[in-house]
Amino acid sequence: MENIAETAFYRRFKQNMEQFSPVGEKDLITAGISGGPDSVCLLFLLLTLQKEKRYGIQVVHVNHMLRPDASGDASYVDKLCKLFQLTCITVEKPVDKLADKWKISTEEAGRRVRYEALREAAGKALSAPECPYSRSLIALGHHLDDQAETVLFRLFRGSGIAGLCGMRPLHGDLLRPLLSFSKSEILGFLAEHNIGYRIDETNAQDHYTRNRIRGSILPLAKELVNEQAPSHIAAAADKLSVIREFLDEEAEKAFGECVSFAENEDLLIRMPPFLSLHPALRPHLLILCFDRLCSTKDIGEEHIEALLALFSRQSGKRLSLPGGVSALRESDHIRLRQRAPKGSEDPEASVSFRVLPNPFSSPLEVPKSDCKKYLDYDTMKNTPVLRHRLPGDYLYVDGASGVLHKKSLNRLLIDKKIPVSERDALLLLADGSHVLWVLGYRISAAAKISEETERILEVTWTRSKS
Fold it and tell me: Where in the chain is the domain with CATH 3.40.50.620?
């Protein structure tokens, strides 16, 4: 450990920590340690810096239960923690089963499980009686090659400038002090100091999308295009981040010229000054509007594009967006309004929600009703919102042999022969773009209660009498 403090590698790490998040005695760092080279390198560097900064360290290891030998990773991490007298919290989660349950990829399920475990451990430690710490940080071992992989992954999936900025060294409570180090540098550091680590064989399996980028696309880019391709991609992400910061600052300036608040706290975007802005600036101003009105948590590229399209539509056209926000095209402006969480734009209808422990011993016991539905709350990624339809909306339908099939909402409405004039007025309960229930019609098959459901969302729809 003494030799580590004398290396140029460590000095770069220390500089990163001081630049992005100076730490001291009142800080607790919760380190996600898998046992692989990146996280083990992170742990040894954190331990070295701790001698000077005297912050607290606890370790969280998540066993995804994807490999028969995964328990060996947990044992190795536990031995490291015992050696350095660190608290080690091991969490076991069947990620494959959870991915099926949540209708997401194994990669995304693993990511969600890891972050939940890290934040839960950090929260418990900070709220414990007589806890000596006042701030919590979560340290992750992402490095430069991970950054290049993330940028390509998001680029291929159609992300906007925010996604192409990649991972940030400090984002909220997430700290990534190895983001400027390449994988080869990390492996060289571990070899130089004779530090052992575990290898996760699933990282080499091509059926994971990121693994294809990591194992095939990036190596080909290095071989056939430029050996420094990963560092150049990461550098481009840094440059885009600077550009994004500039656009965000310009959006702040433009906000006062283009936006005002009505007496009822509706937000009005005046069309002439807004349309005079450079097209690159308009999306950033709209995101800022959402941030002022509610939250940008569930706002994606498709929602911003739909809102931009509203500026060229006829007066009276309406759009429902995440966060309970509605957008209305009026004579010379767009009106943004946040709807009450339990209400809707239909004055003759109201919806109420309750999250409950699952009282049904079998899915067959779930009552059938047009006005009350019981949904699997455990499968939901976000807080459900009541809204009207949006581009990209979908739901799941039952297929042969119990296999679920994804179906666009528009296709469903066509198949149900719902008139075009009525489609925009339909109320939807949605989790992002996943439509959980088309009120008055059907629920998504992916939201149905199963034998494994632990929590349910009870949704009651009431129509007022005229």
Answer: 4-234
CATH class, domain 4-234, is alpha beta
Where in the chain do CATH 3.30.465.60 domains reside?
A: 262-338
The number of beta carbons lying within 10 Å of the beta carbon of residue 396 is 20
Domain with CATH 3.50.40.10 in the chain: 349-463
DSSP state of 4: G
- H-helix or E-strand containing 145? helix 144-156
Beta bridge partners of 429: 386, 437
Q: What does DSSP say about strands 56-63 and 135-139: parallel, antiparallel, or unpaired?
A: unpaired
Residue 82 CA: distances (Å) to CA of 42, 60, 79, 328: 17, 13, 5, 60
HSE-CB for 135 with a 13 A CA cutoff: 14
Structure tokens at 91: 């969490």
Q: Quote the CA–CA distance of 77 and 268 in Å, as a whole number.
A: 54
Quick one: how many helices (H) and strands (E) in the chain?
16, 19
CB-based burial, 231-248: b 16+ in 10 Å, e otherwise: bebbeebeebbeebeebe
> What confidence category does residue 339 fall into, taking pLDDT thresholds of 50, 70 and 90?
low
Residue tagged 């400038």 (tokens) = 161
The CATH number of domain 349-463 is 3.40.50.1820: no
pTM of the model: 0.70
Block residue for tokens 């906007």: 160
Among residues 309, 147, 149, which one has the least CA distance to residue 217?
149
In the CATH scheme, what is the code of domain 262-338? 3.30.465.60
Residue-wise pLDDT tens digits, 264-307: 778 999 999 999 999 999 999 998 888 887 766 667 788 889 99
Sign of torsion, CA 91 94 96 100?
A: negative
What does DSSP assign to residue 198? -
Percent of the chain surpassing pLDDT 70: 92
Tens digits of residue pLDDT in 202-246: 655 555 678 889 889 999 999 999 999 999 999 999 999 999 999
Express the helix, strand and coil content of the chain in percent, nearest 5 each. 45, 20, 35
